[in-house]
Give the backbone structure.
Amino acid sequence: MSEFIKPEPLKRKFFTPGVIILILIAINGIVFLLGRFFFGIGAVTNLNNQYPWGLWIGVDVAAGVALAAGGFTSAALGHVMHREQIHVILRPALLTAMLGYTFVAIGVFVDIGRWYYIWHPLVFWNGNSALFEVGICVMIYMTVLYIEFLPIVTERFIGRVNFKGFLSFLNRPVDKFLRLLDKGLGLTMFVFVIAGVVLSTLHQSSLGTLMIIAGSKMHPLWQTPILPLLFLLSAISVGFPMIIFESIIASKSFGLKPEMEALSSLASTIAPLLGIYLAFKIGDMVIRGTFVYLLEPTTQSIMFTIEVVVGIIIPLRMFLSKAVLKSPALLFTASALVIFGVLLNRINNFIVAYNPPYKFGTYFPSIGEISVTVGFAALLILIYRIIVLNFPVLSLANKFNVPQTKYKVRG
Amino acid sequence: MEKHNRRTFLKTTAIATATLSSLPVKKLKASQQYVLSEDRMGVLVDTTVCIGCRNCEWACKNAHDLPAGKIEDYEDKSVMKKMRRPDETALTVVNQYSNEKDPNLPIDVKVQCMHCDHPACVSACIVGAFTKNENGAVTWDTNKCIGCRYCMVACPFQVPAFQFDKALNPLIMKCDFCFNRTKEGKLPACVEICPVEAITYGKRNELIDVARERIKNYPDKYINYIYGEHEVGGTSWMYLAGTNFKKLDFPKLSEKPAPGVSESIQHGIFAYFVPPISLYALLGGIMWITKRKRSLESEEGKNHE
């Protein structure tokens, strides 16, 4: 099967109207970002002593990590369990995870008050701190993701190293080095692949442990000792929907045929995963008796209901249907709902549920915070585009099975 | 991915497992242990004695090199109409509440860090910048702090404040129990200046006896409760009041230490790295088996052709 997959750099123009809009959104975010570095966090955000964490931690970091879960879930299914049908999406999933985690790291860098000390957790350890665990795991996992991506870089340049002028003497040694690197990586890659899966399960769950220490400051609908488990289960169930979502958007944007065989194969696993997540979520609510809070019409109860109904139950029902698995449009909708549900869950956990005992107002993200978050998302998409245009990540459907015209039509 | 064979697989897995298990587990576990001394100090705040002069606010700012202004300015009671919280400009504040028993005698409550016996901030801090000292003070090392503000999320009393308006070197700010003064044998600045002895500094164990004695001697004056004796596992600062603490904006907290659940989950997931390493081995096993199954299948496929 894998012989049929031949990822190659796409031959497309970089600039399109959509790309220009994304660039403008990114620039807007960077402007506010500069404000944060020159005038302090308070100048750009609505954070204060009552609400120390806001949109940047809730979305850029917590949701960012969850939505990058496609990397480890697909690696587990594709590399560990050797499900061959999905190999075509492994590279794009890896790229998204790598970029996702990079932006998580940038998000942390921007949010912490003393960004120049971001390396401190490497030196000063606190094994009791859930945040320490998350920080270290994310750092190591990000390195692993970059290592996993290296073969794509070597593949791109082996036999094509071409320095001009006085540097040309480097061509041969660099090519040799790349071949050696490629060989070494080929032999040891499974170590990193498994490490990536283990590291992910660890920090995806520890991210849930983070808010447990907030105790009664967190609304009982979310505050539960099984938060780490819920975070892990939701991350696992959002991994594949995220890949499907991106894959369909990428196909659309580059005029390719959606990889329906791989996507349907992925999608068939989503319903059971979502089902387990839902079971634990509802079970936890029943055991702790927190459903009583759903009867009060508060922001929290409404957000919780939306999260569960729109983000879990509806897509769960959709993924159970054969028709959905076969239709790109329905598959896209169902996946988008799961992503929405997990995004909302992270926002709920870190922002909506946070209820400080003393407050002088409520928190809502400022224009600056939203601009930076949206700007980062735009930047991520732009970098994704640059990379798939220059590196062998996406495959042009099945060259050997499909008549050429099928994917050349829209070029 | 495709090329490796069984032998290199087993070899590398063994090496990886060995490296993982040789990580300094002990150091990780021991990093945040602190001695909870029997003789640790505490403060008893008697809200029925406090007159709301706010001198402690002034003394505190002076002791911590914060802009304090003139002490006369603190006679202005208008700021007490609104509830205030300790923040980056004032590490302690006095709030005023109306008294149902006697409207002419409002209740004044001094607020600052409670210096928990099992502090959530110490447990939460990503770089272990917080310390519970032997004398009871919870202090922090500004040189380690990365400004992540997790301590603020963790604190059950919502005490640590942050200099949100500083672009460079923003600090976490909170009462440090006048650590530098008590080291030299001096009293905490607020205790020293209090004109009516509403705040008593002493050994925590003895202060609890003092508080019980007062409640016993004046049962009409006090409600029978020492706030801080058991809250979140006990705090160094404790309060006496003549009315329900809930009316004075004290949070209702359980008697379990704030970091308890979080730490046991954290250590459960990591218990000497056994769960992660087992998961690693399990995944490695699955990988090898499915790989083998696949190569057998493809060989069969070839034979049929």
